[in-house]
Design brief:
By secondary structure, the chain is of the alpha/beta class. The chain has 13 helices and eight strands. It is elongated, with a radius of gyration of 21 Å. Pathway: Amino-acid biosynthesis; L-proline biosynthesis; L-proline from L-glutamate 5-semialdehyde: step 1/1.
Length: about 280
């Protein structure tokens, strides 16, 4: 049976573990988690019945897959003591840390089969979107393993070039915050119009969820859905015209380009090439 080790047992790792156990694709006995926090290890053990360790080395000793779920700023420090074991055993490495590129992961782990993955925060409620990119040495079986792990918390899409991960970050990685900001603005404006905070929040969140579900189920694109609900001379047309006159599309484009650029900068700051 495939043995999966998680280095780091924080919120994202816990969500993936929960999804795997709930779906029954992996048993708790196949999952090994290391984390320096005693209470986090205890919670994972009690909630899911998985193996937990304070020592990263113990977690990876029998692993076929090692998921790196630590902050990018400490990635090299965490991997340094594990290099000998990883380079000898050659497990599949899956990194969910933003800003750590393939060359850095290869150099720090000594492994050939590596998948970079960018999940997003809705993964915490099993509604996530994950973009993945695999190294040339990752075989189809290993790609399928990575895919099955991330599908435990949502949908997966594969990109063909590593730099596309930066675009994934700009779209789905940072994307939830764009929608949260829109919700925040709508709720704030509704309360200024005299609506109670509770009612404004309830209507805004349900509208966002309903619009997303309509778009997912529809056989037409979002632009057509917008046109269908925008009656000439009506309230929606007036609101949309206001957005357009304020150049909303340009604002969105600038924001996404800024996120993409920052992702590229992080790779330079955090990766192995920053040491040169």
């Amino acid at each position: 049976m495939t043995q999966v080790a998680f280095i780091g047992g924080g919120n994202m790792a816990a969500s993936i573990i929960g999804g795997l156990v709930q779906q029954g694709e992996y048993s708790a006995q196949q999952i090994h988690v290391s984390d320096p926090n005693d209470s986090q290890r205890q919670q994972l053990s009690e909630q899911f019945g998985v193996h937990t360790y304070a020592d990263n080395q113990q977690a990876i000793e029998q692993a076929d897959v090692v998921m790196l779920a630590v902050k990018p700023q400490v990635m090299q420090q965490v991997l340094a003591p594990l290099f000998a074991t990883l380079s000898e055993r050659q497990p599949l490495i899956i990194s969910i840390a933003a800003g750590i590129d393939m060359p850095s992961l290869a150099q720090w782990t000594g492994c050939k089969a590596i998948v970079r993955c960018m999940p997003n925060t809705p993964s915490l409620v099993n509604y996530g979107s994950s973009g993945l990119f695999a190294s040339d040495d990752t075989n189809m079986h290993q790609r399928n393993l990575a895919d099955s792990l991330m599908r435990a918390v949502g949908i997966t899409v594969w990109v063909q070039q590593e730099q596309e991960i930066d675009t994934v970050i700009a779209v789905s990685g940072s994307g939830p915050a764009y929608y949260f900001l829109m919700m925040e603005a709508m709720i704030e404006t509704a309360t200024k119009m005299g609506m109670s905070l509770e009612t404004a929040t309830q209507l805004t969140l349900q509208t966002a969820a309903g619009a997303a579900e309509m778009a997912k189920r529809s056989d037409v694109d979002p632009a057509e859905l917008r046109r269908r609900v925008t009656s000439p001379g009506g309230t929606t047309q007036q609101a949309i015209a206001t957005f357009e006159s304020a150049h909303l599309r340009d604002i969105v484009a600038a924001a996404m380009q800024a996120a993409q650029q920052r992702a590229a900068e992080m790779s330079l700051e955090l990766g192995a090439q920053s040491e040169q």
